[in-house]
Amino acid sequence: MQAGMATLHLHTQYPWSLPHNFTEFFTLGLSQRPEVQRTLFVVFLIIYTVTVCGNMLIVITITFSSNLASPMYFFLSNLSFIDTCYSSSLAPKHIADFLYEGSTLSYEGSLAQLFGAHFLGGVEIILLTVMAFDRYVAICKPLHYTTTMTKHLCLVLVAVAWLGVFLHSLVQLFLVPQLPFCGPNIINHFVCDLSPLLELACTNTYVLGLLVVANTGVICLPNFLMLAASYIVILHSLRSHSAEGRQKALSTCGAHFTVVALFVVPCIFSYMRPSTTLPIDKNMAVFYGILTPMWIPLIYILRNEEVKDAMRKLFTRSEIVSP
User: Fold this and answer.
1) CB-based burial, 31-41: b 16+ in 10 Å, e otherwise
2) Which tens digits make up the pLDDT trace of 297-311?
3) What's the CA gap between 208 and 47, in Å, rounded?
4) Share of residues in the chain with pLDDT > 70 (%)
5) Domain segments of the chain: what residues?
6) Rounded to 5 degrees, what are φ and ψ at 103?
């Protein structure tokens, strides 16, 4: 009853959003107050600029620094590249929407946004797991590190991450055309995701909701469990290391664990539950979709001395080469 009254209120407030054919959706965004929208426009524009600049700085630094040729930094450069793409798939459209009272999104555009968010977000989760495996081998089996983490294996792991999540995202995407839409086209969110779409469908979506949770669980839950297990083993093995070795390992693993907590945990909360939208979902989406890609380069730059040294050398070399 409350959900029906809320929908009726939205219809009354935005009567132009009632479709005669379902060719577009109307997203309400984070706020409909003009003064709040103007403030959010400036804040999110700054966040997106910092995100792109910070992540691309890491990619450039690792690419042109011979001292950062280890598998860990190869994975980190891939992570920064993915974060740039992931943020770019959500932030620019959302920033532009702050200039208007709500925004329209075509049916094809909603499918593209849905696919891009799940694809890039899923690749990031698997890549974080691969990075945890890399740290496990480096810390727990250091004598076998160079023979285990070969360049060929690193390329295979990254390729498997991209291909596996591509198939996962296709499954999510194929669920949407099966949904009949005959009612409102108002999405009380700033992105087009599966849960809001399932709520708009004029059919029983219980089974589809279970399929969405199960399909997402294949990405989120096993990877999170592997991440947790790897860190338990790493922390246990650090007892036999020297104080200097423990400090260096904890610094690297601490940065990685912070990224996992910022990205994977909110994703589990948002997708590993029945397909219902909650008021907090908007905030969670902002957290892992907009804020976390900005924090990742800052975390690694501030906590990793090798990255900071490589950046200093890169800038110094640029100043020497420039006329």
Assistant:
1) eeeeeebeebb
2) 788 776 677 787 888
3) 35
4) 87
5) 27-300
6) -150, 150
Q: What is the pTM of this model?
A: 0.81
Domain 27-300 sits in CATH 1.20.1070.10: yes
Q: Are 228 and 256 in contact (CB under 8 A)?
A: no
* Angstrom distance (rounded) from CA 259 to CA 264: 8
Instruction: For 108-177, give the DSSP string.
Output: HHHHHHHHHHHHHHHHHHHHHHHHHHHHHHHHH-GGGHHHHS-HHHHHHHHHHHHHHHHHHHHHHHHHGG
Q: In one letter, which amino acid is 323?
A: P
| CA trace torsion 192, 285, 216, 166 (10° rounding) | 70
**What pLDDT shows up at residue 305?**
76
CB distance 65 to 86 below 8 Å: no
Quote the tokens at residue 191.
């992105």
Question: What is the C-alpha separation between 95 and 39, in angstroms, rounded?
Answer: 11
- The amino acid occupying position 201 is A
282: CB partners within 8 A, 6+ apart = 30, 189, 190
